[in-house]
Task: structure prediction
Amino acid sequence: MSNRDSMQRYHENRAKMLAGGGVKRVEAQHKKGKLTARERLDLLLDKGSFVEQQPYITVRATEFGLANKKFLGDGVVSGTGKVNGQQIFLFSQDFTILGGSLGEMHAERIVEAQGLALKNGCPFVQINDSGGARIQEGTLSLNGYAKIFRANTLASGVVPQFSVILGPCAGGAVYSPAITDFILMVDGISNMYITGPDVIRVVTGEEISHDELGGAATHASISGNAHFRFTDEKSCLQFLRKLLSYLPANNLEMPPVVDGKDGPDRETPELEELLPEDPRRPYDIREFIAAICDRGSFLEVHADYAPNVVVGFARLHGRTVGIFANQPKFYAAALDINSSDKAARFIRFCDCFNVPIISLVDVPGFLPGVAQEHGGIIRHGAKMLYAIAEATVPKISLIIRKAYGGAFIAMSSKALGYDRTLALPTAEVAVMGAEGAVNIIYRKEVAAADDPEAMRQQKIDEFREQVMNPFIAAGYGLVDDVIEPKYARIELIRSLEMNIRKREDRPSKKHGNIPL
Ligand code: HXC
Result:
């Protein structure tokens, strides 16, 4: 073959490979309001940074007509590129080729990219848009999924992993995203479920649409499977660029420190206005977070799920921190099963990737109720305690108002592992609220009093004054300092800086056994 012929063959193959499933299928993809696999990469990556890996991979199986359906790339685009200058590895499934279905070689290509991400210590992004296991390839495709799940698991805690669901993701295919750290979904485009509406109708008789069963809103607010929800693909991929800018490439690196334009000496007098006089009245913890963190830096995770706890990434004088806060606006901030799971998972992510934790405490305890007890609140609440005790990153706590019972331990106890615990003058630290305490320990005295109600109130006031005020806990050294609200940001930054070089070892073990 002449040089000219080989060049021509090169160009033909390249054009075929870049064409995906062809013009008609690309049009069909666009008609559904979806971008193509390559358009998505363009939106995510720094311009011109994409280096494609194994673009000519193609199906080896020949059964059920596959011999005539050989597409270069086999329905997935993979490789590496940069986001804000940081190298990442990624794949993007191409729905225009056999519905993005996953066969043997499609899986091999994905596993290769996963391996490179792990070897190079770079974040991994997977864009899922697929009809699932390629039916024609049978067990070969199941074998491929198993390899992917294993690679996701081995990379867990070594490099951050993100799943962007931009199409169907059904059956066992959902377990790869579920193993990764964060799932992002888009309204009207993303779907995730183990069994679809048709199977459910036959098996249980329930009628439900694809979107109600496994759309973005469902997973962001009901199941908690999705961490972030968007209205369109572009804002989703732009957000992922921002999220990546908060995180290190791997577990051996520190998160990037940006030029903190918001000074470390900014006072926060607005917090005095925010906290109501009546300790039973709620306020929005998001306003508290906005005041103390670098302006506009808070990226909330799981914003619509278990809203009684608020978690997310923010910056304090340019350093990334993980915020773990109670939200008095929902269930008076009482912790329940879902909020415990949400917090524990977030804390563990922060610990994997060297993100210090800031807890903001205003919590009356765990939510009482038969459903909670029977649902396993003991096991779920224990996850949170375990996650904090196990974490070796700097852990700073600020008690705003209530810090009662086991919730005090989970959110602010130095004995559990917090490095520095601060309290506002409004803090109340105790085993339980004053009303509950008096009902138990002064029950007989109150019942025998001439005026039981007056007696009860007197005992409540005494308890609050003598037992709950933050200087009692500070006197035991359980609270390191009591600070004014206007110095909250300044003191948190100082606390972070004094602990940022922290080193803490753990006993050698294969791995712990977190109560799942
Ligand atoms: C092979 C597939 C496919 C699959 C879709 N296609 N899914 N080919 N294996 N799993 C093909 C279609 O035949 C079609 O090819 C093309 O992709 C586009 O699909 P459409 O159906 O035309 O698209 P749309 O109407 O948008 O519907 C998308 C869909 C639907 C909802 C995903 O295709 C669908 O229900 N597919 C099957 C989903 C499924 O049951 N997958 C197996 C899940 S079990 P032509 O040439 O006709 O245009 C699983 C187990 C994993 O994944 C276990 C891991 C442990």
User: Anything to note?
Assistant: The pocket of hexanoyl-coenzyme A is lined by residues 98-99, 101, 131-135, 142, 145, 168, 170-173 (CB under 6 Å). The domain at 3-244 is CATH 3.90.226.10 (2-enoyl-CoA Hydratase; Chain A, domain 1).
